[in-house]
Each structure stands twice: as structure tokens, then as C-alpha cells.
Amino acid sequence: MATEKESLRPLPHVAPDTVGGKLRFSLRLAADFQVITVYRDVKRFIPEVKGILLDVGAGELPYKHLITSPEVTYQPLDVQEASAFDYQNLNVILFDGIHIPFDDASVDFFMCTEVLEHVDDPVPLVNEIYRALKPGGRGLVTVPWSARYHYIPYDYLRYTPTKLRQIFERFRRADVQPRGTDVTTIASKIVVVYARLLHGLAGKKPLDSLLSILLAPLLVGAIVVGHLSLLFKIGSTDDPLGYTVWLEK
User: How far apart are CA 68 and CA 232, in angstroms?
Assistant: First the structure.
């Protein structure tokens, strides 16, 4: 198979545990609407958590800092191949992407953020999560809908609400909620286009340099409109940035 080139690779989603990390995280929460909407839902989820929290596909642990309760035991899980996603984390439990190294009904809560689109067949992994989760245990899963082809070639799927309900049909509750609206999506696309122009600027392309200056007001306007769309639910949820699934076994 021919290697496909990725014109604009996503920035690694790092934890805000250093000065540089805090600055990058703050900038992403200002302009990266995929990250903003996922962060918003994780922040809602974490205060409910007690006991063992399994983070499937934890990467660089970008949400660990939200866990402040001593009643939570955080267990980050990721694959050996995470280096293909620019993640080099020695503080995670490694697994093969399917078989979770936890006993049956031993996990109280789990989360899995922006991972399943990178799993060729999500059903075996979801079944393993279900096996490890205690009866009554709860979880949060986020997936993108309107997102560019990324981490090429390890980007396989986009999920509709119908498909998500099928995948999680074993769970007693699977509440699928959209993240953002089509207005948020448009704002996000404008931000991505501008980021690509800045990437061209780094490559010293004169046309991209000029466009990045001329389009700066459009970028600012798009960011403002994007935040307003989230705040006031402006637009249609039929074409959101992605979906969050709230689960209970």
C-alpha cells in the first residue's frame, strides 16, 4: 500500500503539566473546537467518578489534571504503537488494542476520547470494556464526525448516532449527544484552513504568507462565532463536530 502524505498533522494533545503545556492547552481551548467540546464533556464527567477510572487510549494524559479526588484511581491504557500518533508516554499500561488487562467487573468508570475512529473494528474493544466494567459502572466515549483525515493511515471510521447505538447496544444506557452544531463545524474548518496557511508560512510560501495576514480577521470572527454557537446552541446538530456517548452498564 502506498504511503499517504498528511499535509497537516494534528498537534499532540499534551497534558498541561508544564508552563509550555499549559500555554498550548489554553490556546487549544480558545481555538480548537474539537478539543474544546471534548474537554467540556470530560469536565462534566470527571466529578461523578469514584474508584477505578480506566482511560482507554490515554495518550499523553491530557485530562488527568481534572482528577482531584483521592477516591479516584486513574489507570491510563494505550497501545505500543502510540508513537505513530506522536505520543511517547512511559506512564501508561500497554495493551494490544483489544484485550484489556483487567479482571471481569473490576473497573468502576471508563473514558475513551477520540480513539474509536482509529480502531479498524471497534466491537471487540467495546466488548472488552464492557467485560471489565462493573455492573452499574459508567463511561464516556467521544468520536469525531466532521474531522479531516488524520494520523494517516490510522484513521478508519466516522460514526453516526445509529451506528454508535448499535456498537454500545449491550449497555443498559447509551445516550448519544452531538458536540456542537454545523455552525461550530464551519468555524472549526476555518480555523483548520488558517492553520494550514500558517503551516505554509513556516514553509516560506509567499502566497500563503499574504493570505494568512489578509484572513486574520476572518479567523478571529470564526472563533467568536464558534464559541457563540456552543454557548447559545446556534445551528443544526445534524452535522456536528462529533458525538459523545454517555454509557451505563
Answer: 30
